[in-house]
Amino acid sequence: MAKLARTAASRTVAIPDFLVPAFEPLRRHRAFSSFAQCRSRIGAAPLSIPPNVEVTLLPPPASKKNVLRRFVPPQKVEIKGPLGSLNLDIPPYMTLDQDAEARKATLAIQDKEERKQREMWEGHTAILRFVGVGYRALLEPKAQTKEPEYPGQQFVILKLGYAHPVELGVPLGVKVTIPQPTRILLEGPDRHTVTQFAAEIRSWKKPEPYKGKGIFVDGETIKLKAKKIK
User: Which of 125, 142, 100 lies closest to 189 in space, CA to CA?
Assistant: First the structure.
């Protein structure tokens, strides 16, 4: 049923029913909660330093004459632990206050209007699972087709049904443990290095959807497809 609408010229015009909501005034939707928004204070909480971790503030490198004066070199912090060491850059708008007696560190922001999240440094792990007949992995101190990139480098030998085994060098700072021939445990302080090496291993035999064979990372699952029958 059509409704009537009054225009600027005081004339009535018939409007279809499906266009009536477009001419109605906008309504403000009520929020789900009546409480005011409260931001998290986790960024201001002090970071507890474990007993086996050392945090050292490094002075910024000396600026060269050809470098523009507007460029401010970032301050670096060196973190040493049982899994290795990392050098992290501290943005110029942030300061790190360290209490050696209480073994705590606090990040402070110079400009309170600009806030960013922080991330605690801790070890990262990745577990790889081999599914398939004859799929297994070995950890060897030497490789036949590759030379070590650094002293003491180990190599992961993959046997995935190819005519030759696949040899992959372990990146620096990553610890590889093989509790079972079909399991690989990767550990390291740098998350990017650990996950990148796990992705490199997985790329040699990605999970396929028909038989469910392949290399799975961190509880990865795959939905099996029905076999095509002619």
Answer: 125
Q: 14-67 pLDDT, tens per residue?
A: 777 766 666 676 665 555 555 555 555 666 678 888 888 888 888 776 666 555
CA distances from 20 to 7, 24, 38, 168 (A): 14, 7, 39, 68
- pLDDT tens by residue, 195-215: 999 999 999 999 999 888 999
At residue 131, what is the residue type? V
Helices and strands per DSSP (H, E), number in the chain: 2, 15
Specify whether the CB–CB gap between 169 and 148 falls below 8 A. yes
CA–CA dist 168, 143 (Å, integer): 9
In angstroms, the Cα distances linking 158 to 66, 140, 150, 186 are: 50, 11, 21, 15
